[in-house]
Input
Amino acid sequence: MTPAQSMLRHATGLNLGKSLVDRAVGKRMESTGHVDQQAYVDAITPVELAELVELLVVPESWFYRDAQAFQAALEYIRECVRNNSGSRPVRILSIPCAGGEEPYTMAMVLADAGLPPTSYLIEAWDISSACIARARDGVYGRNAFRASELGFRDRFFSELGDDEYRIDDALRHQIRFKQGNLLEFDTATRQGQFDVIFCRNLLIYFDKPTTKTAIARLSALLADDGLLFAGYAEVPSFCQHGFTPLQYPQAFGLRKDPDAEAWPTRRRAMLAPAAFTALPAIDTGMRPAPAARRPRAQLPATPGVPAAAPAPPPRPAARAKAAGTTPSPASTVAPAQLLEQARRLADLGQAREAEHACRQCLVQTPDSAEAYFILGLLSEHAGKPDQAAEEWRRCLYLQPDHYEALCHLALLAEQRNDASGAAALKARAARIYQRQSGKTPEDRKA
Output
């Protein structure tokens, strides 16, 4: 690690690559007249550090990004408002908030739902002072408006010309913006203060110790019955540190897990079918992600996964022999029912029975990726990470775009201190999520 990387990690917690840091430091050295990197690092001031961080933090966001999270948050906030009966506002935190798109989206969702402004309070933090200044100004160009339906822009923005729009003053005044670092957040005096926290796509910049520290701080800030919304590649890290996922499609929401000791990484919540049905779309053009296709192409070797490629799944007769069962031409239990049974049994802690149901499913449908995924979870819970990895590789052989299997393999790679392998798996999971949620390369460039 270079002196500049070390300084930035100590100051901000950011785990940044050498080439990225060197480029940013080079630009600042040109501006400040330094010719030696070590001399530049030794002479850096808080003002100069802020300038350097601005070059490294490249926030990209837009209104109603990953919109199911806002639907899930709205349903919870409505319940909180009913329960509070006006005794106190629901407190919401967005950190990091980038240019304000996320907290403003939450404010628009709540306004559209008819919640009075006095019923909630939104705070928004970001390490970048430039981002905070932009958020306070509330002026946005075309890149911030990527939904297929832009009715919210007509309701909440004034057109300035040249494809720029300013958000209404009423919403701007509803949000408290502040420049700051999560790792320096005062958790002692704000214990359990927030009912809802959005912290999406921050942990991807952190190493394992910093990730653990960040999650501990977020847990301290979140009320015991509150909700936290993470980025799609970050859910496994939260599950490893005392959170359990919401059963809400594509929301990537989590709660504190009071039973974390009973199931250390609390994967069993990911076994159960979704407990929430999608709410009617908020008037933003939101659409649920399309169902994942299940191609059977061979996967290239991926860092962070045991090197041996999985063999093709055995034929029904061989699988039946391995499972100790006799294949039946007309099984009385359908594969879908067996998978549901396996999830339920796993959730009850009956691992052996859950495994048997998965094996019975594989007798009938040897290409069931989901059966292998559940077997991987069961193996991990049994303390057999190598076997879990093999089951998840079989899952990915059958369904290369299985998002959850990639996330669990990424977490295994992290546990083995394979940072590059974990990063590759997370990046692959991110690409799959973007593809399945209907974001095209053109959308992301717009």
About this structure: The chain has three domains: 3-56, 68-270, 316-441.
